[in-house]
Amino acid sequence: MSRKKKKLSDAGAPPQGLWRRLWPYALVFSAAFALRWLHILEAGRSYPFFYAFAGDAASYNDWAQRIAAGAWIGGKVFYQDPLYPYGLALIYRFAGYHTFLVRFLQIAMGSLGCVVIYKTAEIYFDRKTALAAGLASAAYGLSIFYEGTLLKDGLSLFLSAAAMVFLAPARREPSQGRWFLSGLCLGLLVLTRGNAVLMIPFLLAWPFWLCGRALRRPALRYGALFLLGALIPMLPSLAHNYLVGKDIVLTTSQAGPNFYIGNRAGASGTYEPLASGRQTPEFEAEDARRIAEFETGTTLKPSEVSRFWFKKTLREISAEPGRWLRLLAQKAWMFADGFEMPDIEDYYLAKRFSAVLRLPLLSYGFMFPLAVLGMLCGFSRFKELFPLYVFVAVNAVSVVMFLFLGRYRLPSVPALIVFAAFGSLLLWERFRARRYGFAAAGAAFLAAAFWLVNRGKNEKIAFYMTTSLANLATHYQSDKQNDKAISILREALQMDPADAQAHFFLANNYLDMKNYAAAVAEYGETLRLDPRHSQAMYLLGAAYFYQGDAKRAREEWGRVLEIFPSHPQARQGLELLKQRRSAQ
Q: CA 121, 123, 125 angle in degrees (round to 5)?
């Protein structure tokens, strides 16, 4: 009787070893979710940009609300990548406008992404490497930060990891479903990061390399399924752009302007607006079109605008090829550098408002040298590890060819973390095996690489903090907290008195407060530092206008039109002065 009871209880027990197989997944997910949950709880109470959006976050939020309200098609060819705002719109449409819910879903997705990275490392390497990679991704500070913002970067990181994990088993057990799903994830990634389209031909070639000539027919089948999966998300974007603009644009029309910004004569390699002072998404497409149409003297479709900027850039490159090659080298170094180049939202500023981000989390500057070591040590398995190398190298090259911001590296991060886990454990194993020559060489390489990629990091943080503080001040200005905004801008100008944008924002606050004399002085200082700042010219004219100095207002607005002939606000200002003069 007791024996029968034992059999019955055994029948209801979980399969032997189930917990042993599942506990690493649970550990990685729990660690990742706990850190991200604590971060968004605190950031929701203290981080100014958590609910007050700026830059791309504001653009995505506004776009998503319009879509959720019924504008599913829209009236323009896509200029920004569409997947993230459409995803937001689905949440807003069915769950209401709850941006904290968006963050919750994003950190859940990011935590699942850490499990996906664990699985990828387990398939390519072993369980120890997988656990190291999973926990490293859970504690990667930049993913914790970006998954708590209303930006597409957490989604791009997850889709990169998902595309990799479906490809991982293909080298051992080719599966039509896995090839299709990997292509689908990559196609979705293209709608999040347009430069990811460059990975498709490389990964499409992999099944032919894996299968060889003897298995060409299966390779064709796998390649076709991969390509089909990639095209399924992109074809609706192509159809949308043709429907609304009668223009053939696969995803977005911003490639040409971005290529120009990152490669023109005098470029820094990072983002700078086409028209100074108009560095927000609502101006970018308009300025790209306006300048292109003025220089060509004809009306242009979005694809033609993009081609105009490509051609303009190539002419400048051909005139100074040496200058361009030096710029490419500079951007390549930016990709390797441990400093996280900020956009509107600054990881280092966010640390002021988040105890989680102030923890000794994994940084890019610590992870990247380990990843390079792993890539060097894994090169003997290049064919087998080919997708990992593609996700690092092709994303790096595409970013370097266009323009650089720190968050543009995120699609490479899942592969980099897997390589970093492999490299660090391999070095430790060689040391334990008393292979001191290899261990010493690896340690020396890491010491040199850590020093190189983190050199001058604190100085760069301080330099860019002025811009980040200026962006924070715009939030307080929009919230009618002008005194707080002015205090922050003065802090920024103490750090860098020559920051033209900080002077410009300070002038804007004075203009709001009707302190026109102070506004005139600060707009003047902005133009001394940046003589082509079109908005400063226009608003200096506005400050003179409010002071009652029509002559100086006319001079400033006329100067704007000399440099930017199609500037609409300056034209309106001159027209207003003309009407007032006629009425007198």
A: 60
CB distance 349 to 468 below 8 Å: yes
**Model's pTM, two decimal places?**
0.88
Distance, in Å, from the CA atom of 74 to the CA atom of 563, rounded to the nearest integer, reads: 33
Q: Give the pLDDT score at 176.
A: 84
Question: Would you place residue 5 in the very low, low, confident or very high pLDDT band (cuts 50, 70, 90)?
Answer: very low
φ, ψ (nearest 5 deg) of residue 362: -65, 130
pLDDT (0 to 100) of residue 19 = 77
Structure tokens at 8: 């019955």
From first CA to last CA, the distance across the chain in angstroms is 111
CA-CA distance, 321 to 460, in Å (whole number)? 28
Residue 32's alpha-carbon distances to 23, 135, 156, 247, 399, in angstroms, are 14, 8, 17, 43, 28
Binning pLDDT at 50, 70 and 90, where does residue 216 land? confident
**Which domains can be identified in the chain, with CATH numbers?**
23-250+338-454 (no CATH), 468-583 (1.25.40.10)
CA 74 to chain CA centroid, Å, is 24
pLDDT at 568: 82
- 77-112 confidence digits (pLDDT tens): 999 999 999 999 999 999 999 999 999 999 999 999
**Whose structure tokens read 């819910």?**
101
At residue 14, does pLDDT exceed 70? no
CA-atom Rg of the chain in angstroms: 27
CA distances for 84 relative to 150, 158, 219, 534, angstroms: 9, 12, 33, 31
| CA dihedral for 420, 423, 426, 428, sign (positive or negative) | negative
Provide the residue count of the chain: 584
